[in-house]
UniProtKB/TrEMBL annotation:
Span of the signal peptide: none
Domain of life: Eukaryota
Gene3D superfamilies from the UniProt entry: Endonuclease/exonuclease/phosphatase
Upper classification of the organism: Eukaryota, Viridiplantae, Streptophyta, Embryophyta, Tracheophyta
InterPro entries: Endo/exonu/phosph_ase_sf, Swc5/CFDP1/2
Protein name: Craniofacial development protein 2
Amino acid sequence: MWYTGKTRNRNGVAIIVDGNLKDEVVEIKRKSDRIILVKLMIDEETFNIISTYAPQIGLEESTKKAFWEDLEEIVQGVPLGEKLFIGADLNGHVGSTNEGFERVHGGYGYGVKNEDGESIFDFAVAYDLILANTFFKKRESYLITFSSGPNKSQIDFVMTRKVDRAVCKDCKVLPGECLVSQHKLMVVNVGVKWRKQKYRSNKCIKTRWWNFNGGKMALFKDKMLQGDPWRVEGEPNMIWDEMASRIRNTAREVLGESRGRGPPTKETWWWNEEVQQAIKAKKECYKRLHKCRNEDNYKCFRQARKDAKKAVREARGKACEGLYQKLETKDGEKDIYRIAKQRERRTKDLIRIKCIKDEADRVLVKEDEINER
């Protein structure tokens, strides 16, 4: 997941990428705490995914103007040959009809157009975009993206370039999914021909020299003495190569070799059975509350949420306490450097560069273009 945000509980947007596609991400752009772009290379296609959150109704016009200017700058930086998808909470109503905006609106919207909806249309027309979720005829429940009590509206949209209209196979709201209390989960099906790339293995097999102690040290000494006597005459380089090769082979035999892979990373290393049960109970209570909003279900959810937070807090506290005690020992010195490296790695969007661009800042995906570059 890549996130951008400045103030907690205020604005902030993120993009979550499937684990199978994380190696296809080649670029991250953060424009503000309301706009983020992730660029992926899938086979010979380049996809630009933008997540954005427009200012709410009631904010100053200068804030809204700055938002649209930032979004325009991001969209202008996407080459025409690359695919563009914008998932946006635009806080505007485009209405149920497409009169005057047939190129942008598919005619299957919801509600009545307002002033912020006009801004959405102006932006879409300027960059030849379409509102994908208005191009598929759906029941009302599959169009409403936001509901609060009796108020229902369509303020979340998926936008893409008109030339990529055929790529969008379907776009709808999943009314039964429990995402948040007011916004509904919206999905778009995109037809992509993807052949999973086979990357070269980056394994680095090493001799387990860290096991060179105690009984292994004595066994290594015996193995070295049992062999043929050392040659002391001849060319120095040949003598050195023979000696080094003998030491390495004996070490591999006695100490063994690593598999060439580091330890698996696990963010929730403090996770235990109690936390798992508490989280599961909270989810069940939330589902009941989502289906029937009465006082009993609300009290049940609040208590389950409180219990889950307590279980997480206690589990993390116990795990961290054991870790801190270990860091104070001699064996914990290695863990200090490991933790420092992990923290530094988390601050980076991409660990290594995996793409080449041309003079127009367009990502090259074809082999002949890359070789020519």
